[in-house]
Amino acid sequence: MRDLLATLGCTPIAPDSERVGIDPVGVVISLALQSSVRESAVEVYERTRATYRRLPVVFVSLADTATILSGLERSLKNLPSPPHVVTLDDTTVGTPGTALFLTKADIESRSAQVQAKFRLHFRL
Q: Is residue 18 part of a domain?
């Protein structure tokens, strides 16, 4: 993920780091089972929305879309304003209320499509 972000001119910051003077363009939330972040992906999403109501969100998973996406959508559906989770092929990437879902394979491909959709979603 860091390589993709660097290619796009973005610098990742840790969620608990000091953000003085930093204006984030988006949030990447990992769906990894083991993480240094103690909160669940849904809790991180909720915390993000409490601070940055309109900031674009990308969920990233090591597993494939078929394995993870339906569970993620079920986890988010009880939120007051759940995002519409979309994949690279969806035409609504980048629209308000959507969250982009990427897999490790998407990121590692670093294809022009992945970069274009990421730029569109984060409005870069």
A: no
